[in-house]
Amino acid sequence: MLTLLAALLTAGILVFLSIVIWPERVWGLFGNPDLGPVDFATLERRSTPNDALVCPPDICTAPSDIPAPVYDVSPQRLRQELDAILASEPRMTVVESDAAALTDRYVQRSRVLGFPDTIVVRFIDRPQGRSTIALYSRSQFGRSDFGVNRKRLERWLEKLAVRVRPLS
């Protein structure tokens, strides 16, 4: 009995250490951490509370968690400013960057266990040289994300507002 308990304890420690040391490898066993692109026009929100959306109502029919600000800069300039912000984000990987479509996709991992979240960003042209943004952040695992995806998008928008003041 003691040998079985020691074996189970050892296995548990090895699994825990594997998750902490090599989260990409461990979570990769459950599928690609990148959940893929989204079409904001046809986006359907999840039934579970583990995603967050910022999107202008003329682009998305899905309900947004946060209103999409409008900026007095081109979408290309807005993209440059957000790129500079995201370059300093920890555990962030650029999955796809499409300059022509003004759309980027990222995977950001949680600090402790390395859970992957996929974030899609689209920069939208507006009249008079203005732009707005659509962001969709979703978790690969779990039923709830404890508000992590929403807090991420709020943080990014706050940092962006320091660099480019929103009109609304």
Question: What does the model show?
Answer:
By secondary structure, this protein is of the alpha+beta class. The chain has two domains: 1-31; 33-163, TATA-Binding Protein (2-Layer Sandwich), CATH 3.30.310. Helices cover 32% and strands 24% of the residues. It is built from four helices and six strands, in the order ααββαββββα. The protein has helices spanning 2-21, 23-28, 75-86, 148-163; strands spanning 51-54, 70-71, 92-98, 103-109, 116-126, 130-139. Strands 1, 2, 3, 4, 5 and 6 form a six-stranded antiparallel β-sheet that branches. β3 and β4 (103-109) form a beta hairpin. The longest helix is centred in the N-terminal third of the chain and has 20 residues, at 2-21. The protein is elongated, with a radius of gyration of 19 Å.
Q: What's the CATH H-level superfamily name of the largest domain? A: Kinase associated domain 1, KA1
Helix percent reads: 25-40%
Percentage of residues in strands = 15-25%
CATH class of the largest domain: Alpha Beta
Major beta sheet summary: 6 strands, antiparallel
| Number of E-type strands | 6
CATH topology of the largest domain: TATA-Binding Protein
